[in-house]
From TrEMBL:
Matches recorded under Pfam families: Peptidase_M28 (PF04389)
GO terms of biological process kind: proteolysis
Similarity remark: Belongs to the peptidase M28 family. M28E subfamily.
Assigned EC number: 3.4.-.-
CC cofactor: Zn(2+)
Role according to the record: Extracellular aminopeptidase that allows assimilation of proteinaceous substrates.
UniProt xrefs under InterPro entries: M28_fam, Peptidase_M28
Subunit structure: Monomer.
Keywords (A to Z) from UniProt: Aminopeptidase, Disulfide bond, Glycoprotein, Hydrolase, Metal-binding, Protease, Signal, Zinc, Zymogen
Name of the molecule in the record: Peptide hydrolase
Gene Ontology molecular-function annotations: aminopeptidase activity; metal ion binding; metalloexopeptidase activity
């Protein structure tokens, strides 16, 4: 394949980086995972993935790169000095739509999210139930589209909802809806991780859809499957967006929003965009009344890493410092009773503020 080699050489000289070569699979049906920039990738059996997520606090995160073929993404996942994401705009350092955002925030609450949390389960059933729920909320406005985004490796389609704006440029918020507790058959209620993130995105969507919000930029609400098995759902979605040449102005991730002993959320500073983080800090301070803390969460810790790997500006607002997070996640004890609803409320306030403000970027 001379032609392919020539292209690879060109790409290498342009980026001054050597291409990431995947090791060959030792057997069929195995998955290739990568847990750091330096990690050349390890083939593991699918079932072993579940034991690796037992304790998120102590666990090593990883990204499943089995299906990632884009050299740009593979190189970015291995780059020691990552270049910042390409941005189509500059984020402002003041907020111009506070009254409008506050009027939507005033119609948000935690009653819907509390009810939602009670009825959530994981797996394919959850994917279909969520899809129906989002469709129901979308019926408020005929312009809104809702789709299931299928994944080739697991039966848990992601759900993508879109409130079209005057521009096709995208302002996105996302959360994963799968949960894990050590093995495929384990009961994994996943209340904090990540039913809370899922209902934060749902409530933001409900308020803006039912309130008839007409954004300038297009707003998208994503719920991903397959996060706990190596960010597979979000990797597929953002690979598709990159291949389609979509312009993503900002991606904000919601993963764990309901356990915060300090009462202050944290902006995750690694594998995120520092300019977008400064804007998120402004939004959190305005809409929750609290200056957020900052923390890092490591390689492949959640779906923002998929947006970032595909070259899109990403941010992640986490419930607290990473060492003060819920001790129950990835166990049968990650249940409704442990949820701190004031934390969920803060994330909803921030999310609606973000979506309204960024819709004007
Ligand atoms: Zn999670």
């Amino acid at each position: 394949m001379v032609f392919k080699a020539a292209i690879a050489a060109l790409a290498a000289s342009a980026q001054l980086a050597s291409a990431f070569e995947k090791p060959a699979a030792p057997a069929q049906g195995m998955r290739l995972i990568k847990s750091s920039e330096e990690d050349p990738g390890q083939w593991i059996f699918k079932e072993d993935k579940y034991t690796m997520v037992k304790s998120k606090r102590g666990r090593k995160h990883y990204i499943d790169i089995t299906n990632i073929e884009d050299d740009f993404v593979l190189e970015r996942l291995s780059a020691k000095n990552r270049v910042a994401a390409q941005k189509a705009i500059e984020y402002p350092d003041t907020l111009g739509h506070v009254d409008e955002a506050q009027s939507f925030i005033s119609s948000a609450g935690t009653e819907g999210p509390q009810l939602g949390l009670k009825h959530l389960t994981s797996g394919t059933e959850a994917a279909n139930r969520l899809f129906k729920k989002v469709q129901d909320l979308a019926s408020a406005n005929a312009a809104i589209t809702v789709e299931q985004f299928p994944h080739s490796d697991f039966d848990q389609p992601s759900v993508l909802a879109r409130i079209p704006g005057k521009s096709e440029n995208l302002v996105i918020i996302g959360a994963h809806f799968d949960s894990a507790a050590g093995k495929p058959s384990a009961a994994a209620p996943g209340a904090d991780d990540n039913a809370t993130g899922m209902v934060v995105v749902l409530e933001s969507f409900r308020v803006l859809a039912q309130g008839g919000f007409e954004p300038e930029n297009t707003l998208e609400f994503h719920w991903y499957g397959g996060e706990e098995i190596g960010l597979v759902g979000s990797a597929d979605v953002f690979a598709h967006y990159r291949a389609a040449g979509k312009t993503v102005l900002s991606y904000v991730n919601q993963d764990m929003a309901g356990y915060s002993p300090s009462g202050t959320p944290a902006i995750i500073t690694d594998y995120t965009d520092s300019d977008l983080n400064a804007y998120v800090k402004l939004l959190v301070t305005e809409y929750t009344g609290q200056a957020p803390n900052e923390d890092a969460c490591g390689y492949g810790c959640s779906d923002h890493a998929s947006a970032d790997a595909n070259g899109f500006p990403a941010a992640f607002l986490f419930e607290d410092f990473t060492n003060q997070t819920s001790p129950y996640i990835h166990t049968v004890n990650d249940t409704l009773g442990t949820i701190m609803w004031d934390a969920v409320e803060r994330h909803i306030q921030f999310s609606i503020g973000y979506l309204v403000e960024a819709s004007y970027l």
